[in-house]
């Protein structure tokens, strides 16, 4: 899908965004970065030349080509050139430590590392002697001087396309192997849920080392011939301004980004009338944030998924439901869902249970981890998501919590996400996370880490009274801890492993209320 799309898709000219009809032409812009514009014809040509450069450095079909750096045109060129060669792209999280990057390079067996200038120190600190191609004058000169790859090898939908390392919220990261078919079917799923035209201009603000940045809006827009503008870093004010400046039509984000835009001083004056698609995933958004976007005339559509599903599984349909602003919606077009209860596969239902997923977008397994790959599936091809969902009779679903994050207190299941959602309803609470800590009487109890808004100072009694008004007593955390910030990974998810360790230390030290 990816290379063929480059040859045939197109986008509107920069500064002129026709609304009457879509057309496909190679001279229309595919990617914009600052003052630089690359048309589809130019992108196809540069991709073929870069593929020759990579081949000249020894990259062969099945080899892994790693990329380390912020969102940029060079990221797309590297991915597409890698795929044109039948090789496998390995995006790396530039926010990690050198030791973590080294682990991923070694684990993937990368044949080549392509990195941007902003990651010079990080790339050098890995200590690996693997061949390196630095984005800059060397990279540009090599691309310009190379002849386009003459005879690309055959690549099928079943061939691996990309290794995406999981966020590492538990243990060491492992790489999910996504095939060309997985990426293609996820794109089709997205297009079945979201209207995308060649006249669209999408911002790519989520990092391209993550499935949200790659799969929710970016690849579907390129597939249809739209224009994508990758942003090197997220800045709430800059994004709000850019929407109005160039007529941005769509973007995907994680909930913390949506919240930061709503809370930015430029929110009220921002021009958002060109936006027709704002997708988010990774974790639930706070209800007040979703409603703030709705009040500005923009429906934010939650998409639920995971790296292993490339990533889409559920999405809120166009039009949504004002009574369910934080629901994850209904399954995607080519997605089958079931539930796992008491070790057996059962149909979806209102009783919370672990979600099972299968479909052509579900990954091929974990890189070099046959045992973990086998454990990830039940009944052959049903992937165990590890997430607890509740599904209504109309098929709309709500994510209750992660299976492994459930607190079992006195034999009762306590879902941290439910408690957190109640806490953030208080105007005084900016954010909250609840984790389990050991308890002699109940086995486990909750410890709530509460991040307050500036100037707010509710008492413990205020917090507990609010919780008691909305939750059963057994769900109320035993401990309340104030915190300046919650530990999060690059995709905005709370690092619960880290928070549980911190809670245990705080409990031992008596740092609690």
From TrEMBL:
GO molecular function list: ligase activity
Ranges of residues in domain AMP-binding enzyme C-terminal: 418-493
Origin superkingdom: Bacteria
Keywords in alphabetical order: Ligase
Keyword Ligase included in the entry's annotation: yes
AMP-dependent synthetase/ligase domain sequence ranges: 20-367
InterPro entries in the cross-refs: AMP-bd_C, AMP-bd_C_sf, AMP-binding_CS, AMP-dep_synth/lig_dom, ANL_N_sf
Keyword Nuclease assigned: no
PANTHER family xref list: ACYL-COA SYNTHETASE (PTHR43201), MEDIUM-CHAIN ACYL-COA LIGASE ACSF2, MITOCHONDRIAL (PTHR43201:SF5)
Family note: Belongs to the ATP-dependent AMP-binding enzyme family.
UniProt-recorded name of the protein: Long-chain fatty acid--CoA ligase
Organism: Pseudonocardia adelaidensis
Classification lineage: Bacteria, Bacillati, Actinomycetota, Actinomycetes, Pseudonocardiales
């Amino acid at each position: 899908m990816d290379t063929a799309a480059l040859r045939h898709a197109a986008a509107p000219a920069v500064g002129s965004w026709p609304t009457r009809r879509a057309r496909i032409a190679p001279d229309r812009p595919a990617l914009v970065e600052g003052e630089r514009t690359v048309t589809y014809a130019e992108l196809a040509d540069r991709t073929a030349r870069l593929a020759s450069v990579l081949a000249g450095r020894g990259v062969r079909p099945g080899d892994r080509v790693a990329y380390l750096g912020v969102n940029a045109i060079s990221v797309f060129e590297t991915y597409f050139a890698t795929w044109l060669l039948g090789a496998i792209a390995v995006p790396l999280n530039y926010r990690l430590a050198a030791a973590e990057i080294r682990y991923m390079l070694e684990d993937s067996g990368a044949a080549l590392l392509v990195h941007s200038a902003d990651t010079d120190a990080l790339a050098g600190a890995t200590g690996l002697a693997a061949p390196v191609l630095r984005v800059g004058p060397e990279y540009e000169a090599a691309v310009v001087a190379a002849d386009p790859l003459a005879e690309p090898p055959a690549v099928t939908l079943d061939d691996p396309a990309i290794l995406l390392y999981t966020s590492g919220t538990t243990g060491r990261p492992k790489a999910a192997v996504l095939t060309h078919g997985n990426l293609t079917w996820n794109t089709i799923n997205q297009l079945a849920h979201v209207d995308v035209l060649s006249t669209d201009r999408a911002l790519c603000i989520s990092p391209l080392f993550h499935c949200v940045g790659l799969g929710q809006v970016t690849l579907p827009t390129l597939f249809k011939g739209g224009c994508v503008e990758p942003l090197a870093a997220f800045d709430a004010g800059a994004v709000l301004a850019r929407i109005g400046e160039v007529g941005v039509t769509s973007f995907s984000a994680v909930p913390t980004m949506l919240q930061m835009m709503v809370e930015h001083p430029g929110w009220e004056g921002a021009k958002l009338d060109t936006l027709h698609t704002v997708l988010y995933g990774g974790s639930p958004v706070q209800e007040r944030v979703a409603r703030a976007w709705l009040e500005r005339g923009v429906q934010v559509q939650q998409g639920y998924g995971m790296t292993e599903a490339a990533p889409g599984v559920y999405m809120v349909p166009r039009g949504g439901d004002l009574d369910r602003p934080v629901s994850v919606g209904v399954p995607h077009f080519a997605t089958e869902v079931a539930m796992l209860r008491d070790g057996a596969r059962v149909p979806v239902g209102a009783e919370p249970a672990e979600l099972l997923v299968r479909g052509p977008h579900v990954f091929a397994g974990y890189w070099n981890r046959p045992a973990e790959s086998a454990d990830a599936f039940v009944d052959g091809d049903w992937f165990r998501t590890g997430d607890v969902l509740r599904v209504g009779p109309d098929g709309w679903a709500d994510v209750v919590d992660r299976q492994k994050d459930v607190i079992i207190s006195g034999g009762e299941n306590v879902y941290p996400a439910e408690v957190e959602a109640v806490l953030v309803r208080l105007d005084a609470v900016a954010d909250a996370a609840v984790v389990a800590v050991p308890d002699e009487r109940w086995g486990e109890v909750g410890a709530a880490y509460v991040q307050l808004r500036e100037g707010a100072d509710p008492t413990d009694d205020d917090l507990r009274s609010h919780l008691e008004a909305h939750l059963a007593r057994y769900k109320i955390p035993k401990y309340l801890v104030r915190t300046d910030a919650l530990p999060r990974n690059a995709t905005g998810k709370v690092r619960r492993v880290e928070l549980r360790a911190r809670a245990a230390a705080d409990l031992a030290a008596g740092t609690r209320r």
